Amino acid sequence: MVSRHSNLAHAAYHDLLHALKDERISELRGTPTRVERNGRVYWYDSFRIGNQVRKHYIGEDTPDLASRIARHREAREPAEQRRRARSRLVRLLRAEGYLGLDPTTGSLMAALAAAGVFRLGGTVVGTHAFRLYEGELNLRYDLTQAAQTDDLDIASFERLSLALDDVAAPPVQKVLSEFDFTPAPSLEPGRTWRWRQTSGHALVEFLTPAFQHEGLRDLPALGVQAQALHHLNYLIAQPIQAAIPYRSGVLVQIPRPERYAIHKLIVAARRRDDDRLKSHKDRAQAAFLIEALAQDRPDDLLDAHEDARERGPRWRAYLDRSLARMPDSANLLGSL
């Protein structure tokens, strides 16, 4: 059965998320500017340094972002007071039993966020994303679901990274080196998509959707290479923002929960026989989210499932292969 946090905790989480979104807009240095590229509209912070005009990427145009930008010059509390208010919300969430991060991972997430990784299209995927659905869906995890992995997976669209005309600062490689991460060897000399921590077991991987063959791609906005994977475009389309209850809160980007659940069914079916433990974990995460979403967001779950099935016979075969081993989840999806 799906267990929930209190209504107070759920409200506190969304207060923290809204405060972090407002905080990012409050950091604008110049004039918010709309820029259209390839049929999409993006917001930039345009400001002058000497005789040059710089553009700092804010995000893709949405009604929520446009509204926050329109209000950004309103009188606000001092920055230190805003930080303390967010810290109080984080303490409340931790007291209510929300999952936290160990100091090393929390500091790394905060540093990557400060460098602009998530603002520039980076999306946290994998178990770290799964843990963050706790706040979005007001879920209470058991001990097995709460287990934290040492691996951090960040995915981004190559085309978006090329189009943004903005880069992470400081560079992602510099951020990782400050946390004792070094490039892991790859099949392509001089290029890497994995960074391993020399002082521990942590691993950071960068991923991007493969629209043709899989291989390494450049992500110019992040200044790193990424491993291209099939089916990833489905996962990270239309991501959402999430708040990490660490210090005064960290704003990141994660996949939509319904897409995460359906994608896990595909990933579980694609794994090799020697990855049975990972396949089991994929199906367990998918089953948990499918049960929760079937209660709270059945339409979103139905749309995500139908979208995946309409992408071709191979997609349907992967889904059917996983659901054949998950009768309860199959029944829930069939009843939507």
Automatic annotation (TrEMBL):
It comes from the Bacteria. Residues 25-65 form the DUF6788 domain. Pfam families: DUF6788 (PF20586), NTP_transf_8 (PF12281). Residues 105-308 form the Nucleotidyltransferase-like domain. InterPro entries: DUF6788, NTP_transf_8, NTP_transf_8_dom. This is GSU2403 family nucleotidyltransferase fold protein. It comes from Paracoccus onchidii.
